[in-house]
Write a structure and sequence with these properties.
Number of helices: 15
Structural class: alpha+beta
Radius of gyration: 32 Å
Order of helices and strands: HHHHHHHHHHHEHHEEHEEEHE
Strand order of the largest sheet: 2-3-1-6
Shape: elongated
């Protein structure tokens, strides 16, 4: 570990501890100079950490991380401006900090959307639609509960307009978080930190939007400590040691029905009818049957929707399996192997590709027919699959050619694996009253000597052809004819 990396490794947990302590101090003494100083100091530390995360991100993936760090910077600038105005008694521009606070919402929303587009390219349509449905319902509720009463009670002043913009900012956050949660992607610690931090932010904003007579004196200021912790969690997600999961593309051939979608969609479908019925001034005896009828209708509609989606998923899974696997052996096909290599290949990594060709297969096919040849290929595929390690990918490339993709293995270990597979394949294969044996030529190539996935496949293919030539030369040198593959009958 380099000196800079070691220093960052030590400072990161210290930063997290300081932020947690600062949030606790601010929540305990929100109106004191100690509380405000701890809050602003720790928030500045969060912003610095966020911009450091931008530097650590890959150049092609920096934009969403930069937007998140920019949102934190905008919020901190609003807090610093507000604190300065309070200290100096300047009140000529009372809503200037609000401009900075409001600017953070589209910034962080754009960052979250950028994360989804980066890690689920071309796969976010369903999540986006579901998020928009739920966001529309939430916007309706926010308007009825938070915005409309304020607009009715006061004239349309700048303060009223700005107060109405905060729920709009929360709607942007909600849509972005739902888009993230409902779209494909890994769900490790960084994702959980990010979603938890955003959820805390939304809850705090919702509490702060409640009428002032609902909150006790000082409750709003105490929530700053919770917001500080929420911001710390968000930045922790993009600074985490496994932060790559937020930006690494993940391909899901079949879109799955997220288990959170049905309850969310049910709430969204009920939102508008509930608001309309409860606001029309009808007695409960009239409202209750309407509510029950709407709930039952929505329930049946969701059940029908779920059944249709599951049928579609099963059909897509079957098509995806057929497209990715060899029809005869059930192994992965060439397309799957090449696609996996293109996604996972890293030059210099400990990845090895074994390329296998059956030396005696043609004689079996020519003398005993394709049924015998198919039986041999199926058995060879079964033996290869049984002989590899967990996580290794076995593929049939076509004809009598197979491949095994291995990760986390060195050259010596790969040669041992190749020898075990060749020995296993050479064991007699029983088919009806016939018994066959096939030899295997194995070529081996490692990613340490290759720059691209195509280079690795080409090197393994060349190594296999060289092994095949050596096998034929050894039989010619011994004066024995090349065997047909048949051992004996009956």
């Amino acid at each position: 570990m380099s000196a800079a990396a070691e220093q960052a490794h030590v400072l990161w947990p210290v930063t997290a501890l300081l932020v947690f302590c600062g949030a606790a101090v601010d929540a305990a003494t929100p109106e004191s100079a100690l509380g405000r100083g701890a809050y602003l100091g720790c928030f500045a530390l969060i912003v610095i950490t966020g911009w450091r995360a931008v530097r650590l991100a890959a150049p092609a993936a920096r934009r969403p991380v930069r937007l998140i760090a920019g949102a934190m910077t905008s919020w901190l600038a609003g807090d610093l401006l507000d604190a300065g105005m309070r200290l100096t008694g300047i009140d000529s521009l009372p809503h200037l900090p609000d401009v900075l606070w409001l600017a953070g919402y589209p910034l962080i929303g754009g960052g979250l959307i950028g994360l989804v587009r980066r890690r689920a390219p071309g796969q976010g349509r369903a999540g986006a639609l579901d998020g928009l449905i739920l966001t529309t319902a939430a916007a309706l509720g926010a308007w009825q509960v938070l915005v409309a009463p304020a607009v009715r009670a006061q004239e349309l002043t700048a303060g009223v307009i700005i107060g109405a913009l905060y729920p709009l900012g929360d709607i942007i956050l909600l849509a972005s978080v739902l888009f993230l949660v409902l779209s494909p992607g890994r769900r490790g610690t960084p994702t959980r930190l990010l979603v938890t931090g955003m959820a805390l932010t939304l809850v705090c904003d919702l509490v702060l939007a409640l009428p002032q007579d609902v909150l006790r004196p000082g409750d709003g200021a105490r929530l700053d400590g919770v917001l500080l912790l929420a911001n710390g969690l968000v930045v922790a997600s993009i600074r985490h040691s496994r932060r790559a999961e937020l930006l690494t593309p993940v391909w899901e051939p079949v879109a799955k029905l997220h288990r959170a979608r049905l309850p969310f969609l049910g709430v969204a479908l009920l939102a508008a009818p509930l608001v309309a019925i409860t606001r029309n001034g009808q007695p409960v005896s009239v409202q209750l049957p309407l509510l029950v009828g709407i709930a039952v209708t929505v329930g049946f509609s969701l059940a029908r929707f779920t059944g249709a989606v599951h049928e579609q998923v099963r059909a897509q899974q079957l098509l995806a399996h057929l497209a990715a696997h060899d029809e005869l052996t059930g192994l992965a096909n060439r397309r799957t192997l090449v696609g996996t290599l293109e996604r996972e290949f890293r030059p210099g990594s400990d990845t090895v590709l074994l390329y296998l060709d059956l030396n005696l297969f043609k004689g079996i096919n020519d003398q005993h027919g394709h049924a015998a040849g198919d039986a041999v290929l199926i058995e060879v595929g079964r033996r290869l699959q049984a002989g590899v390690r967990p996580g290794d990918l076995v593929a049939r490339l076509g004809g009598d050619e197979f491949a095994v993709l291995c990760h986390r293995i060195d050259g010596v270990g790969a040669r041992r694996l190749a020898d075990r597979l060749a020995t296993s394949v050479y064991q007699p294969i029983r088919w009806g009253e016939q018994t066959f044996a096939v030899a295997t030529s194995v070529g081996q190539a490692g990613a340490q000597a290759c720059r691209t996935a195509d280079d690795l496949i080409g090197a393994a293919d060349e190594a296999m052809l060289a092994a095949k030539r050596r096998w034929h030369d050894s039989h010619q040198a011994s004066g024995s004819p090349v065997p047909s593959g048949r051992l004996r009958s009956g």
